[in-house]
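Lab notes, practical 5.
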Amino acid sequence: MTEPIASQSLMPAAVRHPDAPRLHALIPCAGTGTRSGAAGPKQYQLLAGKPLVLHTLTAFAAVRRIARTLVVVAPEDDFLASLDLPAVCDVAACGGSSRAESVFNGLNWLMESGAAAQDWVLVHDAARCLIRPDQIERLIDACRRDEVGGLLALPLPDTLKQAEGQRVQATLARQDKWLAQTPQMFRIGSLIEALELVGDRVTDESSAIEALGLQPLLVAGSAQNFKVTYPEDFGLAEGLLQALVADPAVLRQTATALARRYRAAFRWIAGEAD
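Output from the prediction step:
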């Protein structure tokens, strides 16, 4: 892992009781989003009139228990400087060549800025822009007294196939399978130790913690909290955001209609949005 790069803090962190572990959020935002088909980084594409990442940051800013939200961007990325970010947001230009490296650098930035090893950090994908404050609160409530920490996740609803080329090799049991989501909430010190151990070999924080021999807690998430990844995801996310703004009561109806349109990739959305 590389050393974190110096960055400019937009606002001082919120003050908490000195003896109580604080809560921080960390949003890795240094990816290029090559699978999205967008002209630039997907996290900066307009969605319902705002850059995608701003929807994410607004949700975290609404959770008053979070002392600060750190956004980790690529070196020389100044896109966020032109936005009116929530007051609790800091931006660190210490992004790495992988998600794991960006998270590792961000954790070190937090420590150098006054966070303690026993503090909690909630790491969240910038592209999961439909996360809601109540879902974040649910994770905090479930994990804050847990010895390990945990993550939002969904029980796998579909039949799972193992492939060999373009052919089915086997059908896998789905009873104990979950779809990992974010946020993922762990102690800062433990996560730094885990990432030092595994390096760039993991694609989420839970995998790193598991490498320490620990078992993170699975906390029920929402199908609405999907990651914008492919070109068709933008239309789905746009529809859901517009439904939320117009009338939260129509969210389920809109999710079901959009799921029919994108059935091949998203049929698990129908009836799951809550």
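Observations recorded by the TA: The radius of gyration is 18 Å. Helices lie at 52-61, 99-112, 133-143, 188-198, 205-210, 231-246, 251-261, 263-266.
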